[in-house]
Amino acid sequence: MSAGLIVAIVVVALIVLAVVLLLGRRGRARRLDARRDQARRIRTEADMSRVQAERAGAEAEERRREAEISRVEAERRRAEAEKRAAQARREEAQAQERVAAAEARRREARERHVEAARMDPDADEREAAERFDRERGSDRPEGDTGRERG
After folding, report:
1. Which tens digit of pLDDT belongs to each residue from 33-53?
2. What are the tens digits of pLDDT across the range 72-131?
3. CB 124: neighbour CB atoms within 10 A?
4. Could you tell me which of 123, 121, 122, 113 has the C-alpha nearest to residue 145?
């Protein structure tokens, strides 16, 4: 083999080696670029997921606050209703006491009229009781003078 051929083979070998190295670097650069692109997409997706999670968390917190406000408002309304109910019960009890007192005064007045008629020699006790009952709208039976019969 001649020296020129050996030099040519070495040059061709160096060129092939250079091309292989160059192609290897380009392939490696493409693989790295592809991995960088994939990492960028993953980061973008992660950021979107984080934003969505934050939004969902904020919405959940807002709903929790609204629920708390609704609960407090419901408790306030219930307390007010209980207060009004207690006031109504007090007023009803007072009204019943006034009715009972008025009924007692009415009975006392009737008894006093009947007693006055008993003492008056010109008055009839039964007639006085009936007249009182008619005038005052009593629920006693006609002819009842208020005394027990036995």
Report:
1. 999 999 999 999 999 999 999
2. 999 999 999 999 999 999 999 999 999 999 999 999 988 888 888 888 888 888 888 888
3. 13
4. 113
Per the domain annotation, does 3 fall within a domain?
A: no
DSSP letters of 26-69?
A: HHHHHHHHHHHHHHHHHHHHHHHHHHHHHHHHHHHHHHHHHHHH
Q: Name the region of 119 (left: φ>0; alpha: ψ -120 to 50; beta: rest).
A: alpha
**Position 23 in a domain:** yes
Backbone angles phi, psi at 25, to 5 degrees: -65, -45
Tokens, residue 121:
């020699």
pTM exceeding the 0.85 threshold for the entire prediction: no
Per this entry, what is the length of the chain? 150
Residue 69 resides in a domain: yes
Domain of 73, in residue numbers: 8-136
104 within 8 A of 89, measured Cβ to Cβ: no
In-domain check, residue 144: no
Asked whether the beta carbons of 129 and 135 are under 8 A apart, the reply is no
Tally the domains of the chain.
Answer: 1
User: In angstroms, how far is CA 44 from the centroid of its own chain?
Assistant: 40
